[in-house]
Amino acid sequence: KEQKPALPYLKGKKVLITAGPTRETIDPVRFLSNRSSGKTGFALAQAAQDQGADVTLVSGPVQLDTPPGVKRIDVVSAKEMWEVVVPLFSEVDLAIKTAAVADYTPKETFRHKVKKSDEDLYIKMERTRDILAELGARKNKQILVGFAAETKNLNQYAEAKIKEKNLDMIVANNVNDTGVGFASDDNQITILRRDHELVKSDKKGKEELAYFLLEEIQPLFEGEDA
Ligand code: CTP
Ligand code: CA
Q1: How far is CA 209 from the centre of its chain?
Q2: What is the ipTM of this complex?
Q3: Which of 34, 153, 155, 173 is labelled catalytic?
Q4: Active-site residue, 187 included
């Protein structure tokens, strides 16, 4: 495997990464989720750890091995992810939120398996809380990187999210083209940085993409004390 040049800014940095989907329970045998595989977040955790960072990975349910040396905390629902991530944030230097967090959760969870009937079934959903926006509101010294999954108007939505959530960088993912983005090994992305730099990346493997993103984060630390 080709050795990438060192990124000294990461050495000893505390890095928090979230990854994967969340699952929102409907009844004891059913849940709502999404197509996120967690691969981008796990690749980032591995790449940051390889660069000497102290990495904590908060993951939804995925089928991936924990990168060596990375501290992994598993969660299931959006609410659990909030409860783990928000308290950790104050201690970190860098937080990267790749997780595909559910925006809605069933307003009530059925205690017993829902039986079918001849009627249509309606499940009332309520909004979850936006973890990334909360981190943006609490941010003091941390560098905060968000992701955006879009199927249209990628740049406009990404620009809105970087402002609204007080981010330093957003990685916009076009999940429209089948095979790119969610649940795939390749990822075609557009990066928008608070310094207004807009970078497009070609389709690369997720490992290469992870290294590329860490390179793009580096300028955000410049001008800060080590
Ligand atoms: N996010 C979060 N908590 C939520 C929802 C989203 O932390 N409850 C984070 C994701 O981890 C991601 C970013 O917000 O880093 C953008 O997620 P995305 O779904 O693209 O945007 P939303 O703000 O949820 O808006 P919408 O789904 O309507 O596009
Ligand atoms: Ca969302």
Answers
A1: 14
A2: 0.97
A3: 34
A4: no
